[in-house]
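Typical record is below.
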Amino acid sequence: MQRFSILVVLLTGLLVSCSGPMKYHFQEGPVYGSTYHIYYEYPDGKSLEKDILALLKRIDASMSSYDPGSLISRLNRNDSAASLDADLERVLTVGFEVSEKSGGAFDMTVAPLVNAWGFGFTAREKMTPQLVDSLLKITGYKRVTIRDGRLVKDDPRIMIDVNAIAPGYASDVISELFESKGIRNYLVEIGGELRCLGVNQKGIPWRVGIDKPLENEVEREIEQVLQMSRGSVATSGNYRKFYEEDGVKYSHTIDPKTGYPARSNLLSATVLTDKCIYADAWATVFMVIGMEKAIQLLKQLDGMEVLFIYSDEQGNLKEWQSAGIAAMIYKSSTAAQEQPNPQSR
């Protein structure tokens, strides 16, 4: 799993230490081709570092397409001895649900196309209309089912890629660990997908910065700052992970229906909802279908807020916000000047 984070946590003067009325722990490191950053208050002062690392390792062993020994790699090779574990079955079930509700805009069987375009776990190929058509013939979420704890494919060449949903799931799993232990103040960010509850060490809601979608920028700029005390947020964008060839820009978001990189004036989609696995998946959907279709689809989805950043006809950056976003935006004029931490790739 490889991710580019386009969310930052604004510390707003937060010192993660043992002083003060609350004791917060901070843990960070590389994971899934990206990074993770976790803050949490544990009343008895104990660290959960080993528990967190064990969960991250467990999910990686299940879902990493870059590890030939992982469960998903074995399934992609049609290993007859490989059956689904609880983690992968949960992720696939949610993925199929989002696929159905999005009309196929989210599709975990897009792996061969992602690989061919150079954004997956194999070398990039020379793309031709004929190759795209041939790969589309082994793509389609309805061609894969779960039956008696096993993944059943109607063509052995079909491959599964859960990169667009697994980091959000990992954030949920660690959040569930915290809540099972009575932790009520935490923030979990894995590969840019984030879930939080309560307040930071200064007793104020968590503040999360959304990147301005600028290509080839060394210094990050913050477009908006959200203030949150509960929920999940994920942002997907096409301005960090792309390549240019013969003057044409190819982004990593592949449209499962056409087989080509998705193109629209939508530059980034930020989704807020209860569970991070859904925020992660729907952010991908909206980048695939573009802003106009996304706004229409939102009318059918409950419990979700979004912030879309797009380019108008003159090339200027504009925003479209759902009704509930305004109440979450941090109004301080100094918000964008605060030191962002952690800095991600």
The first strand starts at residue 7 and ends at 10. Confidence is low (pLDDT under 50) at residues 1-6, 11-20, 332-345.
